[in-house]
Amino acid sequence: MATVTAGTCIIGPNIAVRGTVSGEEDLLVEGRVEGGISLAGHLTVADQGIVEANLEVESVVVMGEVVGDIDASQSVTIEPGARVTGNIRAPRVIIRDGAYFDGSVDMELSLPDHLLKGRR
Amino acid sequence: MANTVIGSTIVIDGEISGEEDLTVLGTVKGRIGLREHIHVEPTGVIEANIETATITVEGTVTGDIHATERAELKSNCRVVGDIRAPRILIADGASFKGNVDMEG
Q1: Fewer CB near the terminus (10 Å): N or C of chain A?
Q2: Per the CB < 8 Å rule, is B20 touching A13?
Q3: What is the domain count for chain B?
Q4: What are phi and psi of A115, to 5 degrees?
């Protein structure tokens, strides 16, 4: 179970951001973000956090809700109780028991040719 | 963990609204509508019209400020825009260009 890491940037539970959030540090969303998040850092969507945005991050842990596509350069973790709707592209994708996920996963596998045939 | 903190490398382009305190060390462009306190730290840059209850500026604000209670400009801050609030404090050393309206 992931713990909530208190980064330097926090969107609190009673705050809504409509637009784009970009930066180079860890971000904790306890409130609501609509638009886009582009981060060279780690994103945590807390239990009550709601993100309706496409994400471009290094890594993300979702405990709340995400509606949008996730593009992570490292990993995506969907914790129990979390809800994610969208497509995920990341080298490491972890979906825990009890998590809800609706979408596709692309781990950029380098499969042998005969296995890739008919897959794309 | 009630406070919202916009970190120093963070840029928000859009609108922030809500009902809790906001501390800005990074950059916010667009609009801020809050019913609590906004603190703009020395590294903070706001290019937005602001509606809030109270605000303390130590950094840079470009835009109009409407505070229902109090606006405080600390020394070394830079503010360009009109300020409307019943209580307005401007410290020695603050840079400010704009109108002041204390009528509310």
Answers
A1: C
A2: yes
A3: 1
A4: -85, -30
Q: Which position has the token pair 């860890």?
A: A26
Q: Which range of residues forms the domain containing residue A93? A: 9-119
Distances (CA, A) of A85 to A15, A99, B5, B64: 22, 11, 27, 38
Work out the end-to-end distance of chain A between its first and last CA atoms, rounded to an integer number of angstroms. Answer: 34
pLDDT-based confidence at A113, cuts 50/70/90? confident
Cα separation, B84 vs B86, in Å, equals: 7
- Classify B20 as helix, strand or coil: coil
Contact A21 B10 (CB under 8 A): yes
Domain residues for the domain of B84 are: 4-95
Residue linked to tokens 């305190």: B21
State pLDDT tens for residues B3-38: 899 999 999 999 999 999 999 999 999 999 999 999
Whether A41 is in a domain gets the answer: yes
Phi, psi (deg, nearest 5) at residue A113? -55, -40
- Give pLDDT, residue A118: 63
Mutate one of A3, A20, A21 to test the B interface: name it (highest B CB count within 10 A). Answer: A21
Distance from CA of B30 to the nearest CA of A (A): 9
